[in-house]
Each structure stands twice: as structure tokens, then as C-alpha cells.
Amino acid sequence: MTNVLKKGATKHCCYGTCNSDSRYPDRAEMKDVFFIRFPQKHREPEKCARWAKACCRQKFTAESVKKDTYICSLHFVGNAGPTSDHPDPIPATATKYEIEKCLKKPRRAVRRELKLSEELDMLSTAPSTSFTDSETDNSTCNTYTGQDIKKHEAASILLSLQQTSIQKECSQKSNSFKRTFMEAFPSEIERGSKRKFQENSTQTTSMCLDLNESISLKLENHQLKYENEDLKKKINQIAKSKELSIENLKESDKDMHFYTGLSYSQFLCLWNFLGPNTRNISRVNNPRKHEVTPTKARGAKRKLTPQDELLLTLIRLRLGLLHEDLAYRFSIAISTVNNIITTWIQFLFHQFNRLRNIMFPSRKIIQKHLPKSFRKFKNVRVILDATEFFTQAPRNYEQQGNLYSSYKNHCTCKVLVGITPSGAISFISDVYEGSISDKDIFKKSGILNKLNEGDLVMVDRGFNIRDLLLKKGADIVIPPFLGDRANLTPQEEAQTRTIAKLRIHVERVIERMKKFKILKKIVPFNTLTTFSQTVFIVACLVNFSKPVVSK
């Protein structure tokens, strides 16, 4: 019988696309290749997971590893299999740079051992310390005569104290060593004790130098920490100076007017008008708690002050910035911006809405502050005009027809604006559909109820409301109509020019309102109910600016 050599189980490499197979040891690529059994999951789960991940095979995880799963030595650093320095295989997806990085031998920490001559050379070149040998007594440490550290005053003081204690400690150790040596080896003193004692004294001196160097490094470390903290504070100050806040804008009325439409003094007038309730506002979606403790303020601490929250709302109205932009500028969350704007819009409307009746002054007050240009029309109580804002087109065709304006050729909403002869906004109607006529909006707005007998209302030709005013005993100031005639009379032309010069002020006020870019955006159809509040707030903010009519 022939002897049959019993062979082991066939081994395949499970690494990536490797074709190493123990059945073909004669292949050139199989030279010096050996197989390593995969670590088992129940014994070394973390190592098994790392090896399986390095193989980068699809659907091959630690769960797939069996007792006959192998990996060849080609996939380890140096083709030598796992070592203490490189226990894991190189990942199959590693780049050339990453493979070269793995092949580099890791640096080991080498203990720094310097000879006495090297230490003395380093110490002689150091700017802060120096040692001089003592000729009278070789057993004592060197004396510190270095310059003070100029980088940090506290560090220099601490260094001098530490060096004094080191000198004392070194001196005590050296003297103790000398006494012990003399008692133990009296004969050696006569036959060369000086040489051996100098060697031990050199060791003591080296120890003192090492202690001094370690203290210097610690002090330098502390100094760098202090400098790092100072730099962080400066960076925070620079970052805060670039953030939008009242503190950063109040010095420049130009910047304040750009962001809010108000100067800083006008902003303070608005703040004082809103009253002390600004400090206790509860946000719509994040109300404050009602419990108040003696040591803590009501509710959670907020990043923005109430004045900065008002500033954010005014910037939204003036510039129409997106909530994401405002969140970035004020370094807060987008949801916080939404809550702040919604809350302050409601609060501003509530505070301004109390002025609706006061905003429409009596004829006596108007005549007291009547500009010279209105002397021919002393009884003018209000100058009226309508303005429109673009809205989103609804899907319902009936609603589209109601919102469609033939004048703008777009879906709009219409508002009636009234001003006094001095240029202050005295009346703002609710928002109506764009297809409504000027006469109908005059009826529905309720301004007719505010007029008294003898009042004059200055309007454009589109307001055919004389019959409505005559019922109240009031009258209308309107440019003359041409009718069926070819030309106006010279008197009618002069009257038309005079009325146009006075009526233009209401258009100037409307232009001021539309400088608040929130009104220039296309209004979403589902926000028309709250858009009336926004228009009213903008009108009240315009009244905080300088009047358009000079006395």
C-alpha cells in the first residue's frame, strides 16, 4: 500500500477580491504566504468586527465569520501577518497614501538623557537661568543668577520661589550624601575620595537642573494657557461686535435707519411707548412659566434681550429678511426667530391698536397744526388714497376673480390710507380683496363714521363719494372732471394743480410704507387675515419718522 499524505482543510482568503488558495502553493503569488484564522466573534468581538470591516466585502460582517474563515498574510503590514504594532489588516479600500502611512514604523517615546556637559551647554545658552560652579564646596548645588521671565509676571515670581526651594533641597541632599560617604568609607577619603565625591556631586547637580527645567516647562505651559484664554476672549469680543444688536447699532443712526427705518432716538421713543410689558412678554409657541422665585427670573433664560428681540422684528419688517438669515445674524435657532417675530407682531398690534381713535384727530387739533400750503382748505380733515399689495393666487377660481385687480393685472389686496394735512397717518383700513372699488372700500372701512359736519375729504378722481359725504354734512375736495368738454377752464386747471400738489403727500406717505420690504413681498393667501396687522404696524412705525409736510 502506498502511504497517503493526509492534507488539511482547504483555506481560502476572505479579504476583498484576494484569490489566495492553499490548494495552489506552487503559484508565484503564493510564495511565503500563510493563512491566519479569523478571530471568533464570541471570543474577540471587537477584533472580529475590525477585521471583517477591513475586508470590505459586500454582506460580510462579524456574523458571517465561521471557524474555517481565514485571511492570508499578504494583507498585513510587511506581509508578516498580525504583529504587536500592526494587529489589524490593511483596509481593502485604503489609498496609496494610507498604505504608505501604515508601513511607516511608529515612533517610540525616547527618554531624554543628556550628559552633564550637554546640560551645561543648554543652560549657558538659556536666556532665563545660569549656574556657576562653586570653588569652595563641590557638594553644593549651583547658584541661580538668571534673568526674570518677562512674559508673565506671576510666572517669574513663582519660578524664583521654586528655584530657591530647589537650591535648599539640593544642598541638603548633597550634604547628607557627603556625611554618609565619609562615615561609610573613611579610607577612601585618603585614597581618592575627592574624585568619587565629585561624580556624585555631578549627579546631584544634574538632578537640580532637571527639576529646574521641568518647573520652567510647567510655567511656560501655564503662560500659554493664559495667552490662549486671552485670545479666546478677544475672538468672542470680535464675534459679538459683528453680531446685530442694539449695542452695536446705537452709535450709528445711519445703520439704525437702514436696518429698522428709525434712528436710535426714535427707537427709544418706540421702546418707551411700548411700556414695561416688554420685559414680561410670553412667546406664542413657548410661553413663560407663571411661577416666580426670588432668585430667578420668570421662565427659561433667553439669549436675546427684549430690545434685541424688538430689533429683530423691525429688521424683518424693514428688510424682509428670511428667518434663516435672521437666525444666522443673531446666532439663534430658526424656530426661535419664528416665535419671536410672531410674538412681537401680536404685541405691537395690541399696543398700537389702542391708538386707532386717537390717531384720527379732531378738526380743531388739525387746524392748530395746519401747514401754510393748506390755508385755502382749512377744513380738510383727511386726505385719502388706496394702495394695493400683490398676493398669491388661490386655486379657487371664484377667489381668484375677487382678488384680481384690473389696474395691476395681478391678484392683489387693497388698503385705504388716510393722512392729516401735516402728513401723519391717521387712518388705515383692513385688507380687502383687490377687485373692490374705491367707493366700496370707503363704505366698508368705517371712516365715514369718524367724519363730522363741515369736514372736507381730499381724494382723487376715482373716489366718487360726494353723495355719501353729503349725508353726513361733509364735502369732498376733488379735481374737476372734464366730462364731455374738450378742455378744462383756466380756473379748473389752476384748481387741479393746487389739489394735486396737496394730495401728493398721501402718495409720499404710502411710498414710505412700501420701503418696508415686508410689504413688497407676495403675500401668501393663507396669511391675509394677519397681513392687516402687519400693514397697520408699518403705518404706525412710519409715524415715528419725520413728517413729510413742512410747516
What does this structure look like?
- This protein is of the alpha+beta class and 551 residues long.
- The chain contains 19 helices and eleven strands.
- Helix 4 (153-184) runs antiparallel to helix 6 (193-242) and helix 12 packs across helix 19 (528-542).
Q: Report the biggest beta sheet as strand number plus sense, adding barrel if it closes.
A: 7 strands, mixed
DSSP helix fraction: 40-55%
Mean pLDDT equals 79
The topology string of helices and strands comes to EHEHHEEHHHHHHHHHHHEHEEEEHEHEHH
Please state the structural category: alpha+beta
Number of strands: 11
- Proportion of residues in extended strands: 5-15%
Count of DSSP H/I helices:
19
N/C terminus separation: 132 Å
What integer value in Å does the Rg equal? 45 Å
Poorly predicted residue ranges = 1-6, 109-152, 289-297
Query: What is the approximate shape?
Result: elongated
Topology at a glance:
Elements: E1 35-37, H1 45-55, E2 70-72, H2 96-103, H3 116-125, E3 131-132, E4 143-144, H4 153-184, H5 186-190, H6 193-242, H7 246-249, H8 253-260, H9 264-274, H10 306-319, H11 323-330, H12 334-353, H13 356-359, H14 363-368, E5 380-390, H15 397-403, E6 404-405, E7 410-419, E8 425-428, E9 432-433, H16 438-445, E10 456-458, H17 466-471, E11 475-477, H18 490-513, H19 528-542
Parallel strand pairs: 5-10, 10-11
Antiparallel strand pairs: 1-2, 3-4, 5-7, 6-7, 7-8, 7-9
Helix pairs in contact: 4-6, 10-12, 11-12, 12-19
